[in-house]
Amino acid sequence: MELFTNILEITIFSSIMILIVLSIKAIFGNKINAKTVSFLWALVLIRLIMPITFESPVHMDSIIPVKPVEVVEEQSPEAAKAEKGFSANNTYNNNFDYGDAQITPSDTKTDTIANSQTEPTSTIFAQFIDYIKSISIWTVLFAAWAIGAVVTMLTSTLKMIFFCGKAKRCALADNSLKQMLEQHKKTICVQRQVSIIECEYVDMPVTYGLFVPKILLPAGLANSIGHEKMSLIIMHELCHIKRLDVLKNYAWLVAKIIHWFNPLVYLAFKTYIDDVELACDELVLKNISEAGKFVYSQSLLDVIKISNKGRKAPVVLSFCENKSKLRERVETMVKPKTKSRSAGFAAMLLAIIMIMACFTTACQPTPEEPVVYQKTEVYQESEAAAKTEEDAPEDVKTAAPVDFKPIEVPEHISEVYDDYPYLSITYDADVVVPETTAYPVTEVSKRVFSEEDFLSYIDLLTDGNYEMYSEWTLTKDDYLVKMTKAKEYEGTERVIQDNLNYLQERFDEATNAVVNPRITNLSELPSDSWVNLFIKNEANTISRFGFERNGNYFSYTRDEAVIQRPASLTADSQYVKNMDGSFEHYQWQQPCEPDISQEDAYAIALEYKDIFGNDLDLYYAETCSFIKDYVDKTTGWQFTFTRSISNLQTIQETGGYSVDPNHAPSYASPWGEETLTITVDKDGVFSMGWQGASEIGSTVIESAQHMDFDLIQERITNQLNYICASWGENQNKVLQIKITKIQLGISMMSVKDEPDIGEYIPTWYVSYSCKFEGEDEELQQIMFSAIDGSYIEPRITNEKLMQMIDPQG
Fold first, then answer.
1. Which of 733, 737, 720 is closest to 424 using CA atoms?
2. b vs e for 455-467, b when ≥16 Cβ sit within 10 Å of the residue's Cβ?
3. Is the pTM of this model over 0.85?
4. C-alpha distances in angstroms, 531 versus 453, 471, 550?
5. Rounded to 10 degrees, what is the CA torsion of 647, 652, 653, 655?
6. What are the residues whose beta carbons fall under 8 Å from the beta carbon of 299, sequence distance 6 or more?
7. What is the DSSP string of 131-169?
8. SS3 for 385?
């Protein structure tokens, strides 16, 4: 049905263009020249027959607000039964319980004769009715369009065959007419071979023939109107050949076949033919004298007098197609009107607008207000159903029942798209869909941490006997200790020259006259949104806490002198030359055998997760290095927890992301991704990061309908092209993208006008690498809504997205 919907879209935009051209003609009349009018009709024709559109920031959708059309799909019989309380998995029970006696259908008396006569008929009729019900309105409309198109094509073809058969029996014109033809070919520069024929089948001069043009003249016309007038008529027909009007008529025939149901197309063609005749008249008048103009106008009148209703094919051109326009043509010749440059300029300006608005599709939308997740029709139907349920609590949304249908996907995709100038996209990707019984949309609310919460977290993660500082600055002696220790390993893989240079610079700048500001309560901290707090415990270790006032972010590091390096961020594939020192130093930072078992570390992580009241689920566990003062390394574990609903989870893969303001994502999240990261070493919890904290709410829709995966893959390919093609173009190199994994999960999107509410929606996570030949690859990840295929970015907030799109605010 995509073909039919594309045709409908094209016919709508073409109709708008037709109305614009007709309006221009009505407003400006003869003040614009025939070339400009022909150009406008050419735009309309191209839009009618061109099956593709191009991307542009200006599109009809952005000019004319279009209300979404709600498409209601026909219910299957199984869905109808489910709505009435029957389960699709229920089987019919053939045993009827009548008190103590159990009777089966074989024991009941039936009218065998009646059943044998009526059952087949009723069954066939019922099947026929079910089949009729299963046909959607779109199928019916598509079938009607296809039948109409075939009928229009066959009718036009038969007319053309009949006309050509008649024309073949006509005789070539005499030498005097041939001489006129050759003379005028030189005058108006026509290089093609043209035949001139006299025929009793036509009663008006006609031009036809796509590859070998022919001019058909009514038999005896030259003797009736005279030599001079006949010469001008032949020049007029040659003008049609010079302008390739027969070829354009064939294109219009294709347009009428495709858009046979649109009356504006027929009106446009009729008006176009009139304008073609005026354009040919204008061309003739440029090549004749002032006296000849009067003779030419008289030739029009003479031909009309002897002509009857034309008998011709759909793609031939008559000397005077529309007799009602004869007066206008004659007046134009005798009293030509002055053309207006301003009218022509206005017409061309409208033409540019038509090209940008009706020949293009919109780019990824650039929001004009904080971006929100717009609910689809399925979404709206579910909420409407929830509002009509009786006895439902006012503060709870109940989702409408939706039949679950697992999405169909290939297990693996191996495809290459290398037809882009500066981009090659390769799919070598597994498609992962977790087992589930629903694809829900779930509401969550922002969990705001209070100062009391932060103080309780500090107490839980420290020994309870501590001092608080708003800042912590190391002294010159502190840096001397670190530098002395680092120099002991100079020349080994543990320390690189950049480390030593950094310590030397800090030592040179430092002083021993340091007084770190101590505080007794959180109100003494700076009033900034994000706050850092330093804790000094009995062992003189400095811990760092970070939190957001009136927010849902919290972080903790037991010893700020220690750097942690999880395995996923220190893999060999992540190494970047000139940024991470030598490869040997980079490898040394990778975790080795942990000092604590995974089971023991996970038990500690779960204990603290539960104490903090966190309800996220484990996404993955990996080893993690803890490196102090660049030289001492131990190994523990890092656990990452994310939200999981119906076995669909927020996915945390290694990889960065970038946002192109010209192709920005459609939606972002209200407060960033919700994750909890806990690292554990042999001494217990080393660090904790809880961001985007939220509380699960109601189910908005039990199981959302998914966009077909083929369309999702098309969106992925197109969006990567939109975003990355310019990178290669800027460097005049081919950027190689390799998609390695496509996984179904969930992500949190914003809800309009609800800054503290989010909704988890089913999401496709696409992992890929990109690189230029001979350079290191970069791991990336991009997300798409599984419901409507829109490009989304849950890793950034609405506010940040808007700043990227419009840095000036």
1. 737
2. eebbeebbeeebe
3. no
4. 14, 10, 11
5. 150
6. 225, 229, 230, 232, 233
7. HHHHS-HHHHHHHHHHHHHHHHHHHHHHHHHHHHHHHHT
8. helix
- Report how far residue 740's alpha carbon sits from residue 787's, in angstroms, rounded to the nearest whole number: 22
Q: Which residues contact 417 (CB under 8 A, 6 or more apart)?
A: 424, 425, 426, 717
pLDDT for position 297: 82
What pLDDT, on the 0 to 100 scale, is given for residue 679?
Answer: 97
Length of the chain: 809
Torsion of CA 549, 550, 555, 556, to 10 degrees: 60
Rounded-to-integer distance, Cα 575 and Cα 587, Å: 9
Closest CA to 805 of 718, 769, 780, 793: 793
Bridging pattern class, strands 518-519 and 754-772: unpaired
The helix (run of H) or strand (run of E) holding residue 759 is strand 754-772
Cα separation, 582 vs 576, whole angstroms: 9
Q: What is the DSSP string of 430-497?
A: EEE----S---EEEEEE-PPPHHHHHHHHHHHS-S--EEES-----HHHHHHHHHHHHTTTTSSS--H
Distance CA 379, CA 701 (A): 7
pLDDT tens per residue across span 494-550: 999 999 999 999 999 999 999 999 999 888 888 778 889 999 987 789 999 999 888
**DSSP three-state, residue 548:** strand
| Residue 633 near residue 589, CB atoms below 8 Å | yes
The single-letter code of the amino acid at 52 is I
pLDDT in tens, 316-335: 666 665 555 666 677 666 66
CA 89 to chain centre: 37
Q: What whole-number distance in Å separates Cα of residue 249 and Cα of residue 247?
A: 5
CA distance linking residue 45 with residue 732, whole number of Å: 36
For residue 16, the one-letter residue type is I
Low-confidence residues in the chain, pLDDT < 70: 1-2, 30, 52-136, 307-328, 331-344, 347, 350-351, 353-403, 807-809
State residue 664 phi and psi, 5-degree precision: -70, 155
For β-strands 441-446 and 467-469, DSSP reports them as unpaired
The span from the CA of 587 to the CA of 249, in Å, is 71
Residues in a beta bridge with 797: 669
Helix, strand and coil content of the chain, in percent to the nearest 5, comes to: 45, 25, 35
Cα–Cα dist 783/410, whole Å: 18
**What pLDDT score was predicted for residue 154?**
92
The pLDDT of residue 300 = 80
Question: What is d(CA 629, CA 642) in angstroms, rounded to the nearest whole number?
Answer: 32
Q: How far apart are the C-alpha atoms of 195 and 183, rounded to whole Å? A: 13
CA-based end-to-end distance of the chain: 42
